[in-house]
User: Fold these one by one.
Assistant:
Number 1:
Amino acid sequence: MLVRASRVAFAVLALTLLFAPRVSAQLTTGTLTGTIKDAQGGVIPGATVTLTSEARGTQMPPAFTNTSGDFVIANVPPDTYTIEVTMQGFKTLKRGGVSVSAGDRVGLGVLTIEVGGLSEAVTVQAESPLVQTQSGERSFAVTTKAVESLPISNRSFVQLATLAPGVTGNNPSRVGDRSSTGGNNSNIMMDGVSTMDTGSNSVLLQMNVESIAEVKVLVSNYQAEYGRSSGVQVSAVTKSGTNRFRGSAYGVMRKDSWNSNSQTNIQNGDPKTKVDEKDLGYTIGGPIGKPGGNNKLFFFYAHEYSPRTGGGDTVRFRFPTALERAGDFSQSLDNNGNLFPFIKDPNSTLPCSATNTAGCFQAGGVVGRIPADRLYQTGLNVLKLYPAPNVAAGQYNYELVRPAEKLRANQPAVRLDYQPSLKLRGTFKYSGWSQQDVTIPGTIPGWNDTKQYNPLVRTVAATVNYSLSNRTFLEGTWGRAQNSLTGCALAQAN
């Protein structure tokens, strides 16, 4: 019986005062900076700058330009915003499509306002893409549209990290093993909570992409708040509800009937391996209130079902024969079916080969037979655990067609966003994964089967933000990621 409990706890209740010019430790929010000038290039102090979410209609607390015409809007949740600049004696400036990603420090550059009345508005469109110029890290953001549209092999958001420049390798459970940083460590976070299994240093929860809004990959030169490891940092943000009801349904299927039999099976005369895998799910999100109204509470829910059917593949092994289990290799054969009893005696300095057997094990004049007093009883007992050969000896002496296997996993995700006022907002997120509690056939069914008695992984995160002023805010985050790897290997002895 193997019992192992592994918990990855990111339980931090942080009350951190953050000053706008030094904005730091922002794992799930971003920062916008810019300068307001008039048409003649003069700076405009005292202008009011507001951000409005294009998805939810909620606003950020207003920021005001300083004597140099500069402004900073910190603690901005990932979303697409419309920025509005107002100043007495000038036309109102509106610019839409301002995208903010988690951890971004993006400079908007110079925004020019024209002389006129506040009732007059200038709307700016088709601006060039924003470039992060406020920090020196090498990072790459995969946006919501890309997350939803890009075909990836295993439907996990971690797979998207391999799209980032400077990242090589395609194993999603070990992202960061080979990167431009040269390190062999990585850190995966979801909604500001680490989802790393510290026992195996792999991903604890590989959530499906339908519940992910965006993925940020930081390759090198990132700030101190990205801790734990020196390799690639992957930070994902779950989707949130918008001010309109939206939903989706999807199905991804892989079937053996859609492909021809593999060349390996054809050469060995084996039937086609059974493969029937489905990823079926749906999402729904929106306001708790009137769609399009002045709502403060939003929800998002996603659920994916992943039934799997496999088996039918032929496995072949070479196990110890009855004589070999007793320490007698005099009748052992090589891969070509030729007699090969030449077992080197480590206590002898003489050669052991077909032409000179002086250094080979031998007893009673039989080459390949280990003397009884040289046998290790514990080793003999281990050999007895292996299945007995069931076909004629050669390159293999054991053959078995694996039976059909059926499993089903579930992945729910829930998120609530609440903003009762301009200064206060909070979010709650839950993501999980569970699987049927059944016996899983091993590579040799009936001999090394396994069973996981609590197949459940879950992450919980809650964040509260309060703006004390246009330059100072208070943020508290608590989160936890947990799994329970309590199981056993079901082995049968002959």
Number 2:
Amino acid sequence: DLEVQNPAPMSQQERRDNFNHPDGIREVMLKSLEQGANESNDEFALRKLTVEHQLDELERLYAEAFQARIGWVLEPKESRGRFDLAVEPIPGTELASMVASLGQELSRFAGIPRAEGTILSARVNHPLDPMRQQNFRETFRLLADNAKRKIDADAERTAEHKNAAKQTVDDIYDLLDANLKAGLAEGFAEVQPREDGRHTGVSALRTVDGTAAVNIIQGLPAGRPGRQVQLDVDKHGETRIHSVQVMAQDHPGFRDFFGDDKLYFGTSQEVVWLAAGVDAIAALKTAIDQSAAPPANPPPVERAVALYAKLGPWVDLMHKRLGMADDPQRQKWRRLAIDAFEPGDDVINLRIDRAEANLRGDMLVQPGLLRYIGKLFADFSKENLEDGK
């Protein structure tokens, strides 16, 4: 277990000063960051920004938590490991306000159940406080800038196509930024396997103005020659349904995974929906109906974050998508993961919610992930510790 307690004699500002001292945690962590030999400038910039935001979270926890504990337990009888998180914030702090905001309102998607046999079930219902709004805004802006630089480097696109594609990137950023300003982080995702090896996926994001997505969809062909878009292929209630072709050159493996090269977008004032795969439109309509009906037995506190994922299929899809174009080291890590997850015991189950004024969370992991960690350590030892290295 790792436990942090805030001693009464030390003020919050003193703890922040200690954290940000030239020899403190923040500076030591940032100085240790080095760009990898096969890591692009954009990849390194994103990794560095991610670390900076994680340090923001850690600083707030260090300064504003009366007590915080992270524990790890092996449960042999259940064949799993478990991480536990417990945070008791100091009353009146930003951390206490953030925790108090969790679970106050039922999610727009609370009526959608976890699919049977799912390989991905994710739920987020997390009001964003000013710090997280700003951090997400910085991340989205960097991702948008990185995407536009990649578009500029694409020799297959004309200047006209590049400008159109970059405009689409900006439009997507604007849609997400409007959500951030409203403090919205609410959505869900479900991906279900079929007997023939294909999959069906449905997801959605609550938005300030989901109808803005129609202009984004309509502009996609101008940014990528040959991409096919059809508006209003169907409708369900107030939701308009549109189709977008996923081009193999952009997303290798998509068609094999979902059995189709189409993405279906549903647009309404409050929600942008996304569906792919076998019977995607039917699955999308079912989810819309389920979201309109409140759950029969709503929980007393709505879960802020929930994630159930079977890791093997996603690692396999990523390996097919990136293939030999990726860094050899990361290729090796994925091959080790595919081998470790092959027996099928590769599930992680994460939950974060509020318990009165405190934050609670746990993550259950099956042996496949522990086996993968063991393979990584064995590989590291083989490369760095053998023969007296």
